[in-house]
Amino acid sequence: MYDALWHLRGSVALDQVRAGDAMFRLSNLLRHQRKAVTARSPVELVFDNSRGEIDFWRNWRAFVMYERGRFWVDGDRVRYDLRSLHIFLLCLFAACLGGTVVAILGDALHGLMAAAFLMGCLYGLNVLIALLRVPLLIGQTVSN
Fold first, then answer.
1. For the chain, what are the domain ranges?
2. Which of 32, 45, 60, 117 is the most buried (most CB within 10 A)?
3. Looking at residue 58, what is its pLDDT?
4. pTM higher than 0.90, yes or no?
């Protein structure tokens, strides 16, 4: 239920593109996004960078915040499920730390408000940007 906070799920139409061609294009996209493909088939592609470092500060690619993901063909659509749990936890830790500092210097209510604000800024804005960039990039990759 709560995993929707750190997962981006969706689908794009294949538009007269064969499944194998779509997976090949997505494989090239992942290579350009610095994501290592760990499992591949004609109808499925999986990447997993959960053990690797997150090059968040120098890497402004669309997939930078996702450490794990899966693409698969379902009829005439390519579906995807991308996970950003590590960035979610990092932002949550930073927000809690900031909220704790404010609570120590002020009161608990202001600390809680500061933590919520920081979480919204740190993680919320990144998710909002990803919600716009990632589906468009996947759609362009599959259709071109």
1. 2-87+129-143
2. 45
3. 60
4. no
